[in-house]
Give the backbone structure.
Amino acid sequence: MKIITCIKQVPASSNVQVDPKTGVLIRDGNNVKMNPFDLYALEAAFQIKSQVENSIVHSITMGPPSANSVLNEALYMGADEATLISDRRFAGADVLATSYTLSQLVTHIANFDLIICGKQTTDGDTAQVGPEMAEFLGIPHVPYVKEIVEVKEKSIILRSAYDTYDELVEVLYPCLITIEKDANVPRLPSYRRKVEFKNYYIKMVSLKDLKDQNPDNYGLTGSPTQVDEIFPPVKRTEAIVLEGKKEKLAKEMFHILKESRFL
């Protein structure tokens, strides 16, 4: 079985700078980490690999060359292969353009049985990239997976957690699933594997390697949604005490929230 895991490098803190002109996060490669939800996706892949003989876990990510750090972490945890898709023309991609770019990378890699993604990323929180990738690839997907019940030869049985109920689903390969946090306990990177993969070359794919090489379908130009305005929140500690009748308090609170741009 060939398993592809999608991972992402995200800011390691809430102190993130924003480009005032483009409205996108400034990613300089410093103070970053692997998206926490992707750790559960990787662990799910490793557990499946341990159950199915001759399985391979291939980790992929999209980002600048510095994103190799999370691919190395995945290799040290247990991944067998890793590929970075990177090109300046991918910069500024929204959720749809990101999903399309990753689906093109998966098409380039080819011959996969299962794609595993974390439920969402901590910098975007949309939980849309996995399902949209599945749509672009024309394969079924199952979101919010909290348990892998059984791995079969031609299908996989999963338990998904929704707001008010759980759902037991069996889906045929090839397919895509997104993993909930706390679905498992992610392992730590191994020093032995770090030594083993010391000279491993992480493959790099750019626009010229993809089946669709039209730059208009990627990055900022390929993004149907545009950011109207984005700015880092102002950190304040002062408090305002309001007194009076509820009608007056409601109007004053509404005014404060509007002035503070929460409404």
About this structure: The mean pLDDT is 91. The first helix runs from residue 36 to 51. The two ends are 49 Å apart (CA to CA).
